[in-house]
Amino acid sequence: MVKVNQELEDTPEVVNEYPYEKGWIVQIKLADTAELDKLLNVEKYEASLG
Questions:
Q1: For residue range 21-33, what is the model confidence (pLDDT) as tens digits?
Q2: For residue 50, what are the contacts with CB-CB under 8 A and spacing of at least 6?
Q3: pLDDT score for 19
Q4: DSSP H or E segment with residue 24
Q5: Are 30 and 36 in contact (CB under 8 A)?
Q6: Are 21 and 15 in contact (CB under 8 A)?
Q7: How many angstroms separate the CA atoms of 14 and 23, rounded?
Q8: DSSP class of residue 31?
Q9: Are 29 and 22 in contact (CB under 8 A)?
Q10: Which strand (E) or helix (H) includes residue 42?
Q11: Checking DSSP bridges between strand 26-27 and strand 3-4, what pairing results, if any?
Q12: What are phi and psi of 18, to 5 degrees?
C-alpha cells in the first residue's frame, strides 16, 4: 500500500458521494504489472455472471 485516504476516518460518506474524486480508499503500487493481464474486461466479467 502506498497511501491511505485519512480524510475518510472523519467523513466516510465521501466514498458514496464522490467515489471517483475524493472517495478513494487506498492507493497501491503493483509489484508485477503483468498481473493486470489476468483481470477480466467487462465482457468476460458479464459472461461470468451467467
A1: 999 999 999 999 9
A2: none
A3: 92
A4: none
A5: yes
A6: no
A7: 5
A8: S
A9: no
A10: helix 42-49
A11: antiparallel
A12: -135, 60
Q: Which three cell numbers stand for residue 41?
A: 474486461
Percent of the chain with pLDDT over 90: 96
Q: Sign of the CA dihedral 35, 41, 46, 50?
A: negative
Grid cell digits, residue 27 = 492507493
Task: Give 4's strand partners.
Answer: 26
Q: Point out which residues pair with 3 in neighbouring strands.
A: 27
Measured between alpha carbons, how far is 13 from 16 in angstroms, rounded to an integer? 6
**Element (DSSP H or E) covering residue 48:** helix 42-49
In words, the CATH class of domain 3-49 is mainly beta
